[in-house]
Amino acid sequence: MKRVAVAGNILLDVMKRIETFPEIGMLVNIGETSYAVGGCVPNTAIDLKRLCPDFEVSAFGRVGNDDYGRYVSDALKKEGVDISHIKQSALPTSYTDVMTLKSGERTFFHFKGANTEFCGSDVEVKKVDLFHLGYLLLLDALDAKDEEYGTKAARLLAGMQAQGIETSIDLVSAQTADFIAVAGPALRYCDYAVMNEVEGGMLTGIAPRDAGGAPVPENLRRICESLMNTGVKRSVTLHCPELSCALDRAGNFTLLPSLALPKGYIVGTVGAGDAFCAGMLYSFSERLPLEEAMRIASCAAACNLAALDSVSGAKSLDESLKLEKLYGRRELIC
Questions:
Q1: E strand spans, the chain
Q2: Which residues partner with 73 through β-bridges?
Q3: 3-state helix, strand, coil in the chain (%, to 5)
Q4: Residue 122 and residue 148: Cα distance in Å, rounded?
Q5: Alpha-carbon distance 123 to 137, whole Å?
Q6: Preceding omega of 135 cis (within 30 degrees of 0)
Q7: What is the DSSP string of 96-113?
Q8: DSSP three-state, residue 209
Q9: Cβ(276)–Cβ(297) under 8 Å?
Q10: Helices 152-162/179-187 angle, 10° precision
Q11: Is 134 helix (H, G, I), strand (E, B) or coil?
C-alpha cells in the first residue's frame, strides 16, 4: 500500500458566481453561493483518494474551532483521509472567496487564518512514502526565514528527506509574494516540484508565453532546467491550460497537450491545479514515466473542470482516463 502525506493549507472555499468583475465603486450581482473544501490539503488529498482509494492518505494542517473547520475535517474523513494529524488553532479556519465568471475564470480573496500558524513541529510523519507540501507563499510560519536552510519549509522538507521520505511541493500564484526568497530554498530539498507556468516563470524570470499569449515550449524547457538546477532531485513539472511538460534529472523533456474538451464542458477551474498534482503524486508513488504521469494528471484535472467546486468532479483512475478516449487531445500550436 502506498502512503502519502499531504500537508499545508486547509481552508473553505466560498464560491460565488458573478456576472463580471466590477470596477471600483460599482456593484455586481452574485448569482449563486456554495461552499466546498479548498486548499492544498483537502483538494489534493481527496482527489488522490478518489483516484486510487487503496492509497493511504493522511492530512496535516491547522483549522479553527469553528463551523468552517468542522466542515472541512468532516469532508476529509468522509473520503477516507486520515485527519488525526490536523491541529486546532486559536485563529479562525482559513477561507477563500472564489469569484467565478460564467466562462470559468475566477479571482480569489483569501483570509489566511489558522494556516499562518501551521509549522514544522505540527508534522510528525511515520511510515510515509511521499510527503507533499503546499501552498508555499501562503504558510506564514513555514515561509519564514531560517538561518541554516533558508526557510522553515526548507528545513521541514530536509527533515523528511533525511528520513528517506520523498518530497514534493506546490505553490500558489500569489501576486504580492516574493517567489524566489520564499520558494527558492525549498526547491533544494524536493524530489518533485509541480507548479503552473506562471509560478515557474516568476521563480526563474523566464517568460512562459510569447507576446500573443501562446506557450513557448523552448522557454518552458528552460524554466524546467532552471528549476532543476536549484537542486530538485527527480523531476520538475509545469502545467497550464494548453499543455503540461516535465523534465527529469537525466535531462529528458516531455511535453503533452491537454484534452480537447468541447465548448461548454468547463464549469469551473478552481482546484484544477490540485487535481493535476494529485495525478502526479499517484504517478510518482507508482514510479510511472513522466509522459504517463502527465496523461493521468491532465485527465484528473479535466474531471475537475466539470464541477464548480474543487473536488466534486474527482473520479477514479479508470473513469478519469475515459475522458482521453472520449475527447482526445489538442493539436498543439505554439
A1: 3-8, 11-18, 30-38, 56-64, 86-89, 94-100, 106-111, 130-136, 145-146, 150-151, 166-171, 192-196, 235-239, 243-248, 253-257
A2: none
A3: 35, 30, 35
A4: 20
A5: 18
A6: yes
A7: EEEEE-TTS-EEEEEE-G
A8: strand
A9: yes
A10: 10
A11: strand
Q: Are 13 and 42 in contact (CB under 8 A)?
A: no
Q: What are phi and psi of 273, to 5 degrees?
A: -65, -35
Secondary structure class of 123 (helix, strand, coil): coil
Whose grid coordinates read 524546467?
224
Give the separation between CA 1 and CA 3, rounded to whole angstroms: 6
Residue matched to cell numbers 484544477? 272
pLDDT one digit per residue (tens) for the chain, 334 residues: 899 999 999 999 888 899 999 999 999 999 988 899 999 999 999 999 999 999 999 999 999 999 999 999 999 999 999 999 999 999 999 998 989 888 878 788 989 999 999 999 999 988 899 999 999 988 999 999 999 999 999 999 999 999 999 999 999 876 556 888 989 999 999 999 999 999 999 999 999 999 999 999 999 999 999 999 999 999 999 999 999 999 999 999 999 999 999 999 998 888 999 999 999 999 999 999 999 999 999 999 999 999 978 999 999 999 999 999 999 999 876 5
Rounded to whole angstroms, the Cα distance separating 94 from 192 reads: 27
Q: How far apart are CA 91 and CA 64, in angstroms?
A: 6
In a 13 Å sphere around the CA of 95, the CA atoms on its Cβ side amount to: 20
Q: Which of 195, 36, 38, 61 is nearest to 139 (CA)?
A: 61
Q: Cα–Cα distance between 215 and 194 in angstroms, integer?
A: 17
Residues in the chain: 334
